[in-house]
Amino acid sequence: MERANRFYHVCLHLFEPYLFSLQETASSCDTELLSLLLDAGLLVGCVSSALYPLLSSHMLSHQQEGGWDVEKAAADLIAAGHRPEAGSLLLAHRGTHQAQFTFNSALAVVKKWL
Question: In the chain, where are the structural domains located?
């Protein structure tokens, strides 16, 4: 885990000038980097960063190729105290329309689905 933390901090340091740009979008972020971060198990560590929405979206849209377990990622998020994020990830994974995402629904699905 220490090695993964160091990798995360190096990546964050290298890409920090670009992460907070208003023009930063998922399409301009390197998919290989996102895959490497997910492979290293850094989704939970990135929750409070600008990378988290990109990572969670990448995980969901490339789950088959990457072999990432969304339910395990949600369980890891819960273990780290990020219950709303875990619920939102599960809602997106199960195909719930974003208009139906609320804080309460995210918390409710965690109890029901995990």
Answer: 1-68, 69-114
